[in-house]
Prior knowledge:
Layout: H1 4-12, E1 19-22, H2 28-40, E2 49-53, H3 68-75, E3 83-84, E4 88-96, E5 99-107, E6 115-116, E7 119-124, E8 127-130, H4 133-146, H5 165-176, H6 179-184, H7 189-195, E9 199-200, E10 205-206, H8 208-214, E11 227-232, E12 241-247, H9 251-266, E13 269-275, E14 278-283, H10 287-300, E15 309-313, E16 317-321, H11 344-353, H12 362-373, E17 379-380, E18 384-388, H13 392-395, H14 397-404, H15 424-435, H16 441-448, H17 452-465, E19 469-472, E20 479-482
Helix pairs in contact: 8-11, 9-10, 10-12, 15-17, 16-17
Amino acid sequence: MITREELEALITSVETFRIEKTVSTTNIDKFCEAICAFANDMPNSKLNGYLLIGITDDGKRSGLKVTDELLKKISAIRSDGNILPMPVMSVEVFSFDDGDVLVVEVTPSNLPPVRYRGRTFIRIGPRKDLATREEEEILTERRSYNFPTMDNTPCCQATLEDIDQDLFTKYYLPKAVDAGIVSKNNRSVKEWMISLRLYSKVYDCPTNAALLLFGTDPRRFMPGAYVQYVRWDGMDNASAIMNQRMFQGNLCEMLPQLDAFIDMAIVQKRPIPVSALREEIVCNYPKWALREILMNAIMHRDYNGNAPIKFYQYPDRIEIINHGGLYGKARPENFPTVNDYRNPAVAEGMQILGYVNMLNHGIPEVQRELEINGNGKAVFTIDRITVFEAKLMESGKWRRAVDTGNLPVNLPVNLPVNTENLPVRLAQVLELLKANPHISYQQIADQIGKSRETVRVYLKQLREDFKLIDRTGSDKNGKWVIVRPNKTES
Length: 490
């Protein structure tokens, strides 16, 4: 806030783009328009603007006596919802022998254009006016400069009430911060979110990334934040729809649903003989590869658009249409060896949740697994990814890989692997079942840091794909039985 000496200098100066004087105490529209104009800072001076109430145009005090009612009325302008994004301002009273001066100090906004009741006001020298279309575009470009990525931008229309606070504290926070640190810090939800760069202290609101990761209704602020699955009966979108489903909600809830859906509804497994006494389970799509592609689409999409991610299944292929295309340093000629992050905060959140690794080796691994499975490499265009269904039994590609020993050592979960090469998560679950056959879904989920739905998928894979476990007794009082030991133990 300005000092008394600085205020006296402003009072005697003429009105400029950052000073407005008035004797009115009732014209709230006038006050709001002035605050809006100061916040937009059209000259980009980065200097605070001042509304001086109780001062005449010629620099004399009007004899104003500031009451508590007037002070509260002016202070309420900040948060009454008419000026958006919410301005950063302070209000203070200075008393003189010939009257009080109520000073409203406004900080230039990092999120222009700022609008009062939908209209953008700016200062043109000593007067305010409505911004032209070209001036609004200048202000919009300035916002993009201040916040280079959409996900790190504060969502000024949202509040802490738009965050699922239980989901944040019980599910996301334990994955993001060491349990010992959490237990020693008696911070509020807001303070933890600020420390994780998911809440704006200046604008007192969550960021777009926070709403995407654990908001109560992300689509209220980003209408396109969902995945649309459609299974078509024919080779194009003119054919009949056999199945459709919409995946929406925050990423903490939506990602496990997609993970389970790919495994249970998309991936189809069947046995093929490898020798006279042995069969291997093969599939139309390797789950890990399909999951990796879809997670990348969610991580890299442009959330400014209103269209969803389209996850379309045809009889011979799957297409994933992701609006936004390649970003930053990534170009068609250097993809996938070079990557960039359109949504770095979302990417970090998905890494914390365990769905991406941010090591830039996912796509090369996807292509390798697709080739091994008989699908051939995925085809990438600017906004579309196409994965063709494997014709394993007809091509004999899998059999040749088995015969020549060209199978990778660490295959994704649903590809046929030897039990000694179980994926890390499945191996963890198996060890927990050995230690405690009566362990519950929730206890497993807590110990491996995954959701109950994901644990169900892991147990299903151990039971049906690898034939390593079985269940005896009721769901409540039964127990898990190890059907055959892992080969590493034999």
